[in-house]
Amino acid sequence: MSSMPTIGDIYRARPHVYRHLRPPPLHQYSGLNDLVQAEIYLKHENHQPVGAFKVRGGLNLVAGLSQDQKRGGLFTASTGNHGQSIAFAARAHNIKATIAVPVGANPGKVAAMQGLGAEVLFHGNDFDTARQWIAEVAKEKSGTFVGPTDAPLIHGVGTYGLEIIEDLPDVEVIIVPVGAGSGVCGTAIVAKTINPGIRVIGVQSAQAPTMQQSWQQGRPVEGPMTTVAEGLATRISFANTQAIMARYLDDFVLVEDSALEEAVRLLLTHSHNLVEEAGAASLAAALQIKEQLQDKKVVLVVSGGNLSPERLSQIIR
Amino acid sequence: MSSMPTIGDIYRARPHVYRHLRPPPLHQYSGLNDLVQAEIYLKHENHQPVGAFKVRGGLNLVAGLSQDQKRGGLFTASTGNHGQSIAFAARAHNIKATIAVPVGANPGKVAAMQGLGAEVLFHGNDFDTARQWIAEVAKEKSGTFVGPTDAPLIHGVGTYGLEIIEDLPDVEVIIVPVGAGSGVCGTAIVAKTINPGIRVIGVQSAQAPTMQQSWQQGRPVEGPMTTVAEGLATRISFANTQAIMARYLDDFVLVEDSALEEAVRLLLTHSHNLVEEAGAASLAAALQIKEQLQDKKVVLVVSGGNLSPERLSQIIR
Hints:
Two copies of one chain form a homodimer. Chain A has helices at residues 7-18, 30-36, 54-63, 67-72, 81-92, 107-115, 127-140, 151-157, 159-167, 182-194, 210-217, 239-248, 257-271, 281-288, 290-293, 309-316; strands at residues 26-28, 39-44, 74-77, 97-101, 119-122, 144-146, 173-177, 199-205, 251-255, 297-302.
């Protein structure tokens, strides 16, 4: 097993990330302060190219490839933001990305990956089938397979953690949505190394509690997964991110899907940002645990904004 | 009459603006490229604090006040983004802002101004009445009245024009929504000074054509104003911005309100950004004149994102 990432890895990722994007802002909205009765700051990862924090990880991963690996291209599986991130980073470095998606994947996200120049291959009926298959394809073609929690991805996404501390050195609590865990791990490594007094809290949907239960029980748990939030829809546990979370995470809460939808509406109203369900999970968690947050300086990571028009219509109806 | 602003004024505004905000990104979305059949970039002024480009102008104006003026406070009239901008800048410099709004003003925007610490006073039934009144109040109280096209505002908002050129030196066309004209004037001064070959095109609603008709006829025209787009809802012409537009603007198009609403929907679908009607005007114009834009590098200024939940529901229904 590889050693645990450190803040040094994250500092080293910065030039690779900032070559292609600017730090998105940390904004306050008085309506959200009033709702939570705290000093609430949104870290706007939904303002990134491809609309999600994951692009930072993709850029760092691609920058670290050898010339041979670049020639062989990248292979990964995704139904959403991860695939767009890899496609964006591959295009930025002029290398080829091949992304496996399950049959019936969201046509909007497929079009976005193709629009970024990636080849999209349909295979199998779920993400895991597509992922196992594309890993074999990568091997046959001497390409590089990218898994969802590969270390360079954690190093890259951790750069937003540094930005939070730099923008708000007095931050007291950071709440981060958890899918496979790269975002919360990068954030927790940064926050706890710089100031162990900062509380880092993960949030997942109660309709996809696998990562939360694995963290709580200290062993890999598989569970039901019926959430509407694609970005939180983890069916299995990931060993490397669980190891980091076991060491650094202060708390890990579950919120109902209905609370995610309410948080999407609240973010539209008070911040005028379109946020996907996963990205709204941090606000949903803050509202759920608001008695712990009173008058504190709280950063909510808005991890992504890729809500489809169909879902938007359902949510605001 | 004061002399016309120059690019030097805009360079001088930068440190005042960047003390409080970061340049928002210039993003491409393949779906928009396909729609217009051009290389389309969105300048995301909707990502600013207070959700609109005007905050740049407010910050520059406040930074230039004397100690006496700061003590006297700022007085202005607004029904929307201008008032939030002045409130934000005043708070950043710890001075008082008093904003007159017409009776019946949008409660969400009033709450946002108050949330930024401004005192909001209701007076009269329309913007012009409120504005004339608050100018008198400012005089009585030895405060500083801020008009919508004051020179420091133009200098401040022009900073986004510089960012566009720095991010995309080969830009060929820039399309800018026009209300009172500060944004398009700042942009045009920058673009035409650096490269007269860049086409700068303004856009207003056909349901509020005053500024466009005044530009076209070369004399101040007043006209009907029934647009749904608050940010384009100009009923009168402004002499200082008209003088700049007469010198620098290449074209000025009108789009129907229905096209603004369609552009809001397209931006939600293809960029996952919530954009207000005025902010979507640049895309509406690009679609209207797409035969002139084929394969060109085109920047659409997305001037603001403050769409209310009620309007969003109406537009996507």
